[in-house]
Amino acid sequence: MTELVHTRADLARARSACTGTVGVVMTMGALHEGHETLLRQARARVDHLIVTIFVNPLQFGPNEDFDRYPRTLEDDLEVCRRARVDLVFAPSVAEMYPGGEPVVRVSPGSLGEDLEGLSRPGFFHGVLTVVLKLLQLTRADLTFFGEKDFQQLTLVRRMCRDLDVPVEVIGVPTVREPDGLALSSRNRYLSPVERSVALNLSRALRAGAEAAAAGRDAGSVLSAAHLAFGAGEPGARLDYLVLTDADLEPGPVRGPARLLVAAWVGGTRLIDNAEIRLDPKS
Predict the structure, then answer these.
(1) In this structure, are residues 85 and 39 in contact, taking their beta carbons and an 8 Å threshold?
(2) What pLDDT digit, counting tens, does each position of 15-61 carry?
(3) N or C, which end of the chain is more exposed by having fewer CB within 10 Å?
(4) Residue 146 lies in a domain
(5) Measured between alpha carbons, how far is 169 from 172 in angstroms, rounded to an integer?
(6) Mind telling me the catalytic residues?
(7) Are strands 87-89 and 268-277 parallel, antiparallel or unpaired?
C-alpha cells in the first residue's frame, strides 16, 4: 500500500519504520511512462521506495512555466501504486522552505553555468539545493535519476561526491516513444504539429550516433547531428547541440561521449541526449 504524506514530521515518522535499503526517486509530478520505468527499476533495487513530488520554485526562472507546470497528484499516486511505491512525500512550498527561499544554496560550480545553466541562469542552484534537502529528509541509501536530464544527473553525482553525501546515485536510461521522442512531462504542451517538429531532437542524436558508429571523428559526428537537425521539420529553434566527454568535462572528446541537444518547439523547450562512443584514436 502506498502511503501519502505532506509534512516533514509525517515523513520522519514513516521513514523511521523503514528497514533495509531505502531508495528515493525525486520528481515534480506529472508522471509518465518514463517515470514509471524509473520507479520499476528502483523498486527492484531497494527494500523500501520513497517518491517525492514537489514542483520546486527555485529552479524556475521569472519567464518560465512554474505556474502552468502540470499538477496531477491523483494520477501520480496511481502511477506510484502500480509501481509498488511505499511512501510518497508531496510537500507544499511552505513545508519545504519554511523560512522562505533559502539564503544558502548549493553552488553547482562551472559545469552548472554551462549548457542548461547558461540558458537557464540559477537553474542548477535550485535543483541541487532541493535535491540535497530531500536527501537529508528521506535519508535514502540510493537515489535514481533519469538520463534524459543528463547534466542534472552528472551534477547530483558530483555534489554527493564532493560534499560526502552518503548515497549512491544511479542513472536510468531515457524512455522513448516508438518514433524516438524522449518522454517528458512537457510533451503534453505540444500540438500534433509541434510533436512532429520535436522529432528533430532525436533525429539529430541518431545521426550523430550513426556517424560515431561509422568511425567518424568528433567534428564529423557533431556536423552530422547539426545537419540532421536542420534537415528536419521546420519550426524548431536550436538552443544548443554539443558533443562532450561522458562526464561533461572540458577537453578533447574521445572514447565514451555524450551528444546533448536543447531546442524550442513553439513555446516549449525540450532537451535530449545520447550516449555515443568515439574511436579513441580519432
Answers:
(1) yes
(2) 999 999 999 999 999 999 999 999 999 999 999 999 999 999 999 98
(3) N
(4) yes
(5) 10
(6) 35
(7) unpaired
∠ at Cα 38 (34, 43), nearest 5°?
145
- Which residues are paired to 257 by β-bridges? 245, 276
CA distance 63 to 136: 30
Q: Are strands 168-172 and 142-146 parallel, antiparallel or unpaired?
A: parallel
* Separation CA 22–CA 43 (nearest Å): 10
Q: Is residue 32 situated within a structural domain?
A: yes
pLDDT tier, 183 (very low <50, low <70, confident <90, very high otherwise)? very high
73-90 burial code (b ≥16 CB/10 A, e <16)? eeebbebbeebebbbbbb
Write out the residue range of the structural domain in which residue 93 sits: 3-172
